[in-house]
Design a protein that fits this description.
This protein has eight helices and 16 strands. The protein is of the alpha+beta class. The strands form two sheets. Strands 1, 2, 3, 4, 5, 6, 8, 9, 13 and 16 form a ten-stranded mixed sheet that branches. It has a six-stranded antiparallel sheet with strand order 12-11-10-7-14-15. Helix 2 crosses helix 3 and helix 6 crosses helix 7. Helix content is 30%, strand content 34%. It has two domains: 118 residues, Rossmann fold, CATH 3.40.50.10330; 156 residues, Sandwich (Tumour Suppressor Smad4), CATH 2.60.200. 43% of the residues are buried.
């Protein structure tokens, strides 16, 4: 049975750290029914299920897939679409209704978690834009795999913050408390990692605190990145002194991190991560449990996104 072209396939990913998992979805569903939206609804069942559900929807003919979730759920949905058997992946339109502990990619486009009605209205309006997708390739023994991202890839401190935030989020249950506690824990750690990158023909070696490879702004670490210019922005952060770290946080909040003396920015189409000893790696808030070498590329206009008016 063919799926109507105007029917949405919706994946609802309940927000972590809250018991009111259905209350918000019921409000969203009631508003969509009020607006006459045709949709089929699936709820995620834990880590990895969003990717599987997005792939299933794509393979079954849905050409509008809507994620109700945060950055991690969006990342899973993108990977489900990109690894589906659909020949023209860019014919699938991805819509976002923010509902996560981290909504950086949604905020980039002006989507507000507190205004789900506006997000639904924008998806109904269906203004489409093709965006770039980051692609990470890696091999484990004789098996080579790929993982995709739309916001940013972190190596070192940034990825460790994701790992700590995931733990503190379950404890505190609030986004700002989770972020604050993570920052306090990492403020005094300032751990360095032996990293070796190759980009634009240049080898970058040394003790580095964090690396951000962004297709979008990457929580402020790649503030000049835009997900539709065919480039990756790279910010390499060397070890700051404690006062420099504090001033760096101020610049980060102001969107001017690249002005900090410990940050070196690059723009490239490909990055090879040849070594990152004992460093965590994350993609859009999802930890990547793979070892180097990693090859990061940009897929120009690899995905179609439904954006605000």
């Amino acid at each position: 049975m063919a799926i109507e072209t105007n029917r949405w396939g919706i994946i609802y990913n309940p927000k972590a750290g809250t018991r009111k998992t259905q209350k918000r979805w019921n409000k969203i569903r009631e508003y969509m029914e009020e607006r006459g939206v045709l949709f089929d609804y699936l709820q995620s069942e834990g880590y990895g299920s969003v990717e599987r559900l997005a792939r299933m929807l794509a393979n079954n003919g849905y050409r509008t897939i809507v994620v109700v979730g945060g950055d991690g759920a969006i990342n899973d949905a993108v990977n489900g679409i990109m690894t589906s058997s659909v020949e023209r992946k860019d014919e699938i339109a991805l819509g976002i209704i923010p509902n996560g502990m981290g909504n950086d990619f949604a905020k980039y486009w002006g989507l507000d978690e507190d205004d789900y009605k506006q997000a639904v209205d924008w998806i109904i309006n269906r203004r489409l834009r093709k965006i770039d997708v980051g692609r990470v390739g890696y091999c484990n023994e004789s098996v080579c795999s790929t993982r995709y991202f739309v916001n940013a890839m972190y190596i070192g401190l940034g990825a460790r913050m994701v790992w700590i935030s995931n733990g503190t989020r379950r404890f505190w249950g609030m986004q700002w408390l989770s972020f604050l506690s993570s920052m306090i824990l990492l403020l005094f750690e300032r751990k360095l990692y032996r990293v070796h990158l190759k980009l634009n023909g240049e080898h970058i070696r040394g003790k580095i605190m964090t690396v951000c490879i962004g297709s979008a702004r990457g929580y402020g670490l790649t503030p000049s990145a835009v997900p539709y210019n065919g480039w990756l922005d790279v910010s390499v952060v060397y070890r700051p002194q404690l006062l420099q770290l504090l001033s760096g946080l101020v610049l980060l909040l102001r969107g001017r991190l690249l002005n900090h003396k410990t940050v070196k920015p690059y723009r490239t189409r490909k990055v090879k991560v040849l070594r990152a000893m004992n460093a965590d790696v994350s993609l859009d808030g999802r930890i990547l449990h793979e070892e180097c070498p990693l090859e990061v590329r940009i897929v120009p206009e690899g995905l179609t996104l439904i954006i605000p008016n």
